Amino acid sequence: MIPFVTFIGLQSGVSQEVELANSMLWSVVNTKSPADTSYLFGTIHQISQKEFTIKDKLINSLYKTDALLTEMDLSEPEKAKVMKDYMFMKDGMTLDQLLSKKEYATLNGFMLEGTGESLTKYNKNVPFITSSALMNYYIEGVPASYDMVLTQMAIGDSMRISGLESVEDQMSVMDKMSYKDQAKYLMEIVNNNEETKLRFRAIVDAYKAENLDSLSILLDENLHTKDEKKYLITDRNKKWVPVIESAMKDQNTFIAVGAGHLGGELGLINLLRKKGYIVEPVIDEAEE
């Protein structure tokens, strides 16, 4: 069920040894300079606009900082052009070569029903890209993106905007899994439609409840091997921590990453705590 991992942001992983409070927003304080406070927020990359909410604590925390740090810098139009180079399979490979005629026809019918688009449009795309498009089937109405809205808010406030990794870094994660396996997991969406629908609902509900532990478990169930866990979360989180530290050293920073990166022993919250930072949940007054 790997597509759910792409839905939440190409990441997952959980360790029950680290239990966390119910919050997607955390303050990060440098003990050597207590006046410096940054924030760490877990996003969901695709959610229905009807269920999209920006809480007061999120707005207030963002505007207390001077910089926005996201997985990729979404403020540069050139990024989209670079990403296009990574959207297509290499060596002329196509989806209809990876699937049987029956599977391709089934997937095409599902795509037409769910998105109104023919699978032909995605035939040359990396299957991960197609799975992300297909997840729109489970979003009621127009999808919304926290990453993009936060970027727009940061631009409006003239904040410095940067990314934790380049387009090349993020898209290269896809190369860790063979096209054949990606196509296989793509078909799981179709073949387990009802289960997929229930899991999708559970993930959205856990996110809206800000229950990191439950969300991490749900995402972890969609990984197939320990290797996936390593290159989807562990390796990336370890690379990100020095970048986050450098950003926070320069100025108070609002860090927004897929919520699956936050929890667990190797999640960003625990890794930053091990570095000596005080990382605590930010709670709205209405939630207290």
Summarize this structure briefly:
The chain is of the alpha/beta class. It contains 13 helices and eight strands. Helix content is about 45%, strand content about 10%.
Essential attributes:
two-stranded antiparallel sheet, six-stranded mixed beta sheet, single chain, disordered N terminus, alpha/beta, 288 residues, 47% helix
Sheet with the most strands, sense and barrel status: 6 strands, mixed
Overall morphology:
globular
Weakly predicted, low-confidence segments: 1-16
Number of separate helices: 13
Give the % helix: 40-55%
How many domains, as an integer? 1
Mean pLDDT: 86
How many distinct beta strands?
8
The helix/strand class is: alpha/beta
Strand content: 5-15%
Cα separation of the termini: 36 Å
| Strand arrangement across the biggest beta sheet | 6-4-7-2-1-8
The SSE order reads HEEEHEHHHHEHEHHHHHEHE
What is the gyration radius calculated from CA atoms? 19 Å
List the helices and strands and how they pair.
Blueprint: H1 3-8, E1 25-29, E2 37-43, E3 47-48, H2 56-62, E4 67-70, H3 78-84, H4 95-98, H5 101-115, H6 127-134, E5 143-144, H7 146-156, E6 160-163, H8 167-172, H9 179-191, H10 193-208, H11 212-220, H12 226-250, E7 253-258, H13 268-274, E8 278-281
Parallel strand pairs: 2-7, 4-6, 4-7
Antiparallel strand pairs: 1-2, 1-8, 3-5
Helix pairs in contact: 6-9, 10-11
